[in-house]
Write a structure and sequence with these properties.
It is built from three helices and no strands. The chain has about 45 residues and is mostly helical. It has a domain of about 25 residues. The chain starts with a helix and ends with a helix.
Length: about 45
């Protein structure tokens, strides 16, 4: 039960901070990643 709760919490945190996490992993500016994510929502 604790594992499931931990996975859910980590998923929410990762989703909420996805731009910062992706910017750090990819080494690109946050603004560029926000534009990329925003463009995908249009479809």
């Amino acid at each position: 039960m604790l594992w499931i709760l931990l996975i859910v919490v980590l998923g929410v945190v990762a989703y909420r901070y996805r731009v910062k996490i992706l910017a750090r992993i990819l080494g690109q500016p946050e603004r560029r990643i926000e534009r990329q994510i925003g463009r995908k929502k249009d479809y």
